[in-house]
Amino acid sequence: MSQGICYLVGAGPGDPGLMTLRGKECIEIADVIVYDYLSNAEFLHWAKPGAEMIYAGKKSKNHAIPQGGINELLVEKAKEGKIVTRLKGGDPLVFGRGGEEAEELREAGVPFEFVPGISSSIAGPAYAGIPVTHRDHCSQLTIFTGHERPDKETSSIDYEQIANAPGTKVMLMGVERLPLITSSLIEAGADSDLPVALVRWATTGQHRTITGTVATIAEIAEREEFKAPAVAVFGTVVNCRENLNWFEERPLSGKRVVVTRTRAQASKMSRMLRELGADVLEMPTIKIQQPSGDDAREFAETVADAHTYDWIIFTSPNAVEHFFEAFYKIREDARAIGGCRIAAVGPGTAAKLKEYRMATDLMPETHVADAIPEAFEKEFGSVENTTILWPRAKGARDTLSKKLNEAGAILDDPVAYETVPETDDPTGAVKRFQEEGADFITFTSASTVEGFLDLGLSIPDETAIASIGPVTSAALVENGYDPDREAESSDIPGLVAAVLELAKEEPFGED
């Protein structure tokens, strides 16, 4: 049996962009991923197929697996010869008990590696517009934990030392004990008027900040129902927030947006929405599969003969991807596609073609498949005896094929891929949507609408609906939902723009 190893990886404060490249590599090669409460579950998308996912989250008084059990689990899995990646929020060695886990691994003879992560102690304040050091305010930084074992008879926190330490003080954890901590600091000599900021779910779409003073912050937090996880910043640097707040000023800040694309395709749209400040719920309602049996054989044969057709029609980016994936398994040279011309339904499909260095020769003004025959007629007058290849999704509407056949075209329409409902919820997005709702929900195809409904879900009245185009809108209407906004451009940038327009309008769900 080969020797296993355990990577103790800092998952950063939550923003996927703050995960280190080395941390991402450790996720991608892992056989087993043990992740905690504060590590962004979206990182699990980077895992290889078949990787074992184990949740070992710990909240105050609620541990999925006790620390001793986690230590044993890491040793056990690594001794089976597996690559184990232990994902810990922030940095594994900043109040993350990474040192304790490493000691257990070393004692058991298991190789390990520390992979540092960006700590919320600096990232949280930064995203709240608070520099933890600043020449006009301080030249010292103290980081302490407000969380202690509940069974300890005496506190190990030296409040006097913290109260009298110059510069900025950052407290990780302990928001539930804030009244005791602030009163203890004041008793130990801290200035009761010293500015304090609390940053909750720092760097994520749920990021929220409140401010006060040592004397008032506990009362403000209680009134605002400000719960963990939160970082507390004590010091005059908090005053910098008034001028330096940047993260919370973005147009979708505080808004939750559901993305229903497949897991493989969601990243681009999610990234665009996050850059606008959204709290993104990746909730794929469909997944794409290769054709099988007779469908697979027919598709392979037509792809091999692609150079014999006058035109190839692509009605979705998925069709483009699956066609060229099959094409380059058969052919080594792009020129083998011959002199056939290419039609694309919309800008999203055209953009995908461009990734394969393929130009689009025809695009209908209305970005739906049914408009292609009219586009042919307008541009060329007739398609009679024109050979056309249309790689399609299994179960696709037959309107396009009927119109082309009626016009006299010689059409082959093999199944390039199959869309099936997504039933897994590894990141808990479906559960969170059911419990917390969302401000906006986006649909990128009729199949995402059907997949959403197959999950037994419904859209609350207060949630605004954005559709990528007319076919998707029609599927929504057929199922009793009127989209609040349809993208002007039937692609991902157009759909994101539709969400931005919705965000500017009045609250939804009101008469």
Write a concise synopsis of the structure shown.
This protein is α/β, with parallel strands linked by helices. Helices cover 33% and strands 20% of the residues. It folds into four domains: 113 residues, Tetrapyrrole methylase, N-terminal domain (Cobalt-precorrin-4 Transmethylase, domain 1), CATH 3.40.1010; 128 residues, Methyltransferase, Cobalt-precorrin-4 Transmethylase, Domain 2 (2-Layer Sandwich); 113 residues, Rossmann fold, CATH 3.40.50; 129 residues, Rossmann fold (3-Layer(aba) Sandwich), CATH 3.40.50.
Q: Give the structural class.
A: alpha/beta
Instruction: State the share of residues found in helices, binned by percent.
Output: 25-40%
The whole-angstrom Rg is: 27 Å
Work out the strand percent.
15-25%
List the quaternary state of the chains: single chain
Number of helices: 18
Task: Output mean pLDDT.
Answer: 90
DSSP summary, beta strand count: 24
Terminal Cα span: 67 Å
Main sheet record: 5 strands, parallel
Please give the CATH class of the largest domain: Alpha Beta
CATH topology of the largest domain: Rossmann fold
Strand order of the largest sheet: 3-2-6-1-7
